[in-house]
């Protein structure tokens, strides 16, 4: 068992490191492309960067589909969303203190927060995920994108600046995305090996180890933005990534898998997600900021979730 566990663990760690490196490159070139094509600050953080930092989850979704283990990706997507809202947000406040937001930004993030939670409730309402769910989730993402455009968050001339620099940056962006896809596929394969060796479910592995690994891009971007006191960029990416995960990416996964995907093993995450949403709502609605105390509470909530997951897994295997 140990002989097989060590190589799989090393590959998983190396895959997470490559995910981190390639994600930083994707974000870097996304930033440059956003400036070249003239995208507004809100779209830059919520759409472009959020989509970029959600690429690991999308990559895992594609890889797990071809590996015939969609439960791994569902666990990753729901687990990654909770990891973003609890662990990543908590670590950001611990590292740089309270996150201050303007009233309009707070209202926008509260809306995104509740949309994320409602999407999770919708997913668990039937105990399974089907292609019908996929169509609805992707439609919800499209509505949100259209709403932002209608409110003037997108400039009229997105492609005002074109030329050699845009082309070169686009190529670099695609290369970075290719590295990201490779890292994600390797992580899925190593995670499956760990599943076989350790005897835990693919869904549990996706909701813990893989979810933590694929949340590294968000943590990297958020810490970089907060260091420069770009609070709206950090929070736009964090909540945008959460919404992207449970709408666009999860919807895509549903469409790629013609059969039903069992979501019952993930029911345990719902109460923890609900508490996290309430804590963040209290900070945004009442205090207009996410305090360090709220952040510490979110981190403790995340570890309580981990302990619960592994305790349940141990109980089931006994």
Give the termini separation: 18 Å
Number of helical runs?
A: 12
Which residue ranges are poorly predicted, with pLDDT under 50 across at least 5 consecutive positions? 152-161
The CATH superfamily title: NCX, central ion-binding region
Structural class determined from secondary elements: mainly alpha
Helix content: over 70%
Mean of all residue-level pLDDT scores: 77
CATH class: Mainly Alpha
CATH topology: A middle domain of Talin 1
Number of strands: 4
Largest sheet: 2 strands, antiparallel
Strand order of the largest sheet: 1-4
Summed up:
The chain has 318 residues and is mainly alpha-helical.
């Amino acid at each position: 068992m140990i002989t097989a566990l060590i190589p799989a663990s090393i590959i998983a760690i190396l895959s997470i490191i490559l995910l981190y490196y390639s994600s930083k490159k994707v974000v870097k070139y996304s930033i440059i492309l956003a400036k070249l094509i003239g995208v507004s600050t809100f779209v830059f953080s919520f759409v472009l960067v959020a989509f970029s930092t959600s690429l690991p989850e999308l990559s895992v979704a594609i890889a797990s589909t071809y590996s015939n283990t969609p439960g791994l990706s569902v666990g990753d997507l729901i687990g990654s969303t909770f990891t973003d809202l609890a662990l990543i947000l908590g670590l950001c406040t611990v590292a740089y203190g309270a996150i201050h937001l303007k009233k309009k930004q707070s209202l926008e993030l509260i809306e995104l927060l509740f949309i994320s939670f409602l999407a999770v409730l919708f997913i668990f309402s039937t105990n399974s995920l089907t292609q019908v769910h996929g169509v609805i989730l992707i439609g919800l993402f499209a509505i949100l994108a259209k709403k932002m455009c209608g409110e003037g968050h997108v400039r009229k001339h997105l492609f005002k600046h074109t030329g050699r620099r845009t082309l070169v940056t686009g190529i670099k962006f695609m290369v970075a995305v290719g590295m990201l896809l490779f890292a994600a596929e390797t992580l899925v394969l190593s995670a499956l090996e760990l599943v076989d060796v350790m005897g835990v479910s693919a869904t549990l592995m996706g909701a813990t180890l893989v979810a933590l690994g694929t949340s590294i891009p968000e943590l990297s971007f958020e810490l970089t933005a907060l260091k420069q006191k770009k609070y709206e960029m950090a929070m736009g990416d964090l909540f945008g990534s959460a919404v992207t995960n449970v709408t666009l990416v999860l919807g895509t996964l549903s469409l790629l898998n013609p059969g039903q995907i069992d979501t019952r093993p993930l029911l345990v995450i719902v109460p923890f997600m609900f508490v996290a949403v309430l804590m963040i709502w209290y900070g945004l609605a009442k205090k207009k900021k996410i305090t360090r105390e709220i952040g510490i509470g979110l981190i403790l909530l995340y570890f309580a979730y981990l302990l619960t997951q592994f305790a349940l897994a141990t109980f089931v295997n006994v």
